[in-house]
Amino acid sequence: MAIPLEIDIKTGEIKSPYGDLFFNFDVDQFSIVGIEISEPNRRQGIGTGLVNAAEKLARELECLKVEVPATPSRMAISFWNKNGYEFALKEEKALVARIMKSKSSSKIFDSDSGIVLMHKRIR
Questions:
Q1: Is residue 116 part of a domain?
Q2: Of the four listed, 14, 18, 24, 100, which is most buried by Cβ atoms within 10 Å?
Q3: Does residue 41 belong to any structural domain of this protein?
Q4: Exposure of 4 by Cβ count < 10 A (0-12 exposed, 13-18 middle, 19+ buried)?
């Protein structure tokens, strides 16, 4: 599904009528710091479309990778895995395994930093 997007590099936002993605970047790294999709529009490819647009922008900015501070839940980790992201810190391997075995997709697990750092090389 093609969604109309408005990209604002100054504010670090990619906006659509159905949800928004927030980012920042420096010389070689692009970080997705949040995605907000309205409840009735979830699980329709909107988040993936926003992530694809962010990755395209990151390539245009000549960044080497995209990082995401993901919520430590099965739903969030699964979303990022499906989009080609891996956990960035080997120390989080056991936590990620515990999260993925959870029966609840929305349960948020405790982590030292409150997040699970995910990343994807794009160049």
A1: yes
A2: 14
A3: yes
A4: exposed
Q: Which domain holds residue 49?
A: 6-121
User: What is the β-pairing status of strands 13-15 and 6-8?
Assistant: antiparallel
Q: Write out the two tokens for 120.
A: 């994807």
Model-wide pTM > 0.85: yes
pLDDT in tens, the chain (123 residues): 578 899 999 999 999 999 999 999 998 899 999 999 988 888 889 999 999 999 999 999 999 999 999 999 999 999 999 999 999 888 888 888 888 898 888 888 887 778 899 999 998
Give domain status of residue 64, yes or no: yes
CATH classification of the domain holding 37: 3.40.630.30
Q: How many domains does the chain have?
A: 1
Residue type, 10: K
CA quadruple 74, 82, 94, 69: dihedral sign: negative
